[in-house]
Amino acid sequence: MQKLKLLFVVVLLSAGAAIKAQEKIVWEISSGDTAHQRILFRQINNVLTAAPDTKIEVVFHGFAIFAVLKDTGYFHQQIQQAHKRGVIIAACNNSLKSRNISKDRVIPEATIVPVSILEIAGKQREGWSYIKAE
Amino acid sequence: MQKLKLLFVVVLLSAGAAIKAQEKIVWEISSGDTAHQRILFRQINNVLTAAPDTKIEVVFHGFAIFAVLKDTGYFHQQIQQAHKRGVIIAACNNSLKSRNISKDRVIPEATIVPVSILEIAGKQREGWSYIKAE
Amino acid sequence: MQKLKLLFVVVLLSAGAAIKAQEKIVWEISSGDTAHQRILFRQINNVLTAAPDTKIEVVFHGFAIFAVLKDTGYFHQQIQQAHKRGVIIAACNNSLKSRNISKDRVIPEATIVPVSILEIAGKQREGWSYIKAE
Asked: Does B38 contact chain A (CB < 8 Å)?
C-alpha cells in the first residue's frame, strides 16, 4: 500500500514536470521564399503533432509580409489551420508601412504588431524560446 | 474617491510594467550581403524610434566583418548614427585573425570582442534577447 | 600578509565568476550547404579553444541531416573531434522520416531527437543560449 502511494506521488510529480515542460515558441520569418515558408508550416505541424499544447507565435516581417496578405499569400490554408490550432499569426506594421500596404489587405487571422523585432525580443524576455526560420 | 485612488495605483503599476519592459537585444550578423546589412540598420532605426531606451549590441562576424573596417564598409554613416544612440558595435577578433586583418583597420566606433559566438551566448545568459539577422 | 590574503580572496572570487560564466549553447543547423557546415565546425573549434568547458549541442535537421549520415556527410572527422570534446550531435528524427532515411544510416556519434524545434526550444527553456547557423 505504501508502495502504491509512492508510485502515485511519482506519477503526479512526472505529470507536473510534463506540464511545466510546455514550450512557448516565438518564430521569426522574414524570407519571401515560398520554399522557406513551406518548411515553416511543416515544422509547425511537426511541433503541434508531437506537443499539441505548445504555444506558438509566428512573426511575419520583411519579405515574408506578403504571406499574410489576402491577395498575395500562398499558404492561406496552412495559416488558417495553424490559427485554428491556436497559433498566433503576427504581421509587422513597419513592414506594411514601408511598402505602403494598407492594413485592409492583411488576412483576418493575423494580428498586427507595431515592430517585429520588439515583439520577438519581448516574447523572449517573457521566457519564450526563439526560432529563426530560414 | 476610492475609485480615483485605485485608478492612480493601476496607472502607477502600468508605468512600472512599462519601465520593466525595456528590451536588451544582442543582434548577430554574419552576412556580407549589403542588402542584409541595410535591412539590419533599418530595423535598428525602427526599434530605437519605437523604444528609444532599448539596449542593442550588434555582433559583426564572418563575412560581415568587412562592414566594420575603415576601408571596406558601406554603412559608416549608419554605424556612426547607431553608435551615437548607444548601440554597441562589436567586431569579432577571430573573424579578423582568420582573414589576417589588422585591428588598425577596424573603425573606432567598434569594440573588439574575442569570440563572436561566446559574446552572443554570454549576453543571452545575462537575459538579453537574441536576433539573428539574415 | 593581509594584502596577500586579499589577493587570494580576489583570485578565488574571480575563479568563481569564471565558473559561473560557463556557457551552454544549442546550435541549429538546417542548411545543406557544406560551406555553411564548414563555418559551423570552425566556430565550434573557436568556442572550445577559448572556453573549453562550454556545453554545446548541435541540432542537425532539414537539409543538414545529410551531414550526420554515414554515407553522405562531408565532415565526419570534424564531428568525431567535436564529439570527443563533449559536443552533443543531435539528428532530427522527423527530418529522417520525411526523407525515408533509415536510422541505420545515422553515424554512431549522433543522438536521435524526435523533433528538432522542440529540442531547441526545450534547451532554451532550460537556460541554454541559442545560435542559428547560416
From this structure: no
**pTM exceeds 0.80:** yes
Residue from C25, C98, C118 to probe the interface with A (highest A Cβ count within 10 Å): C118
CA B60 – CA B35 distance, rounded (Å): 15
Q: Note whether B35 contacts A: Cβ–Cβ < 8 A.
A: no
Give all strands of the β-sheet with A24-29 in edge-to-edge order: A110-113, A88-92, A55-60, A24-29, A129-132
At residue C20, the pLDDT reads 52
- For residues A55 and A91, the answer to whether their CB atoms sit within 8 Å is no
Q: What is the ipTM of this complex?
A: 0.85
The answer to whether residue A21 neighbours chain C at the CB level (below 8 Å) is yes
- CB contacts, 8 Å: B127 with chain A: 125
Alpha-carbon span A111 to A97, nearest angstrom: 15
* pLDDT tens sequence across C14-30: 544 444 579 999 999 99
Assess A130–B contact: CB distance below 8 Å, yes or no: yes
Pairwise CA distance, residues C67 & C105, whole Å: 11
For residue C51, pLDDT beyond 60: yes
Q: In 10 A of CB A114, how many CB atoms?
A: 13
- Do the chains contact at B129 and A121, CB–CB below 8 Å? yes
Q: Quick one: cell of A43? A: 515544422
